[in-house]
Amino acid sequence: MSILAKARVQELSAVAPVAPLRHAPTLLVIIYFKLIKGILFIAFGVVFYFHSTHDLPAEWDGLLKQPLVVHVFERLSIHPENRFFQDIAAQIANVTKHEVRVTALGMMLFSLFPLVEGTGMLYRAFWAGWLAIGESAFFVPIEMYELARKFSPFMLLVMIVNILIVYYLYVNRETLFRHHHPHHKP
Question: How many distinct structural domains can be found in the chain?
Answer without folding.
Answer: 2
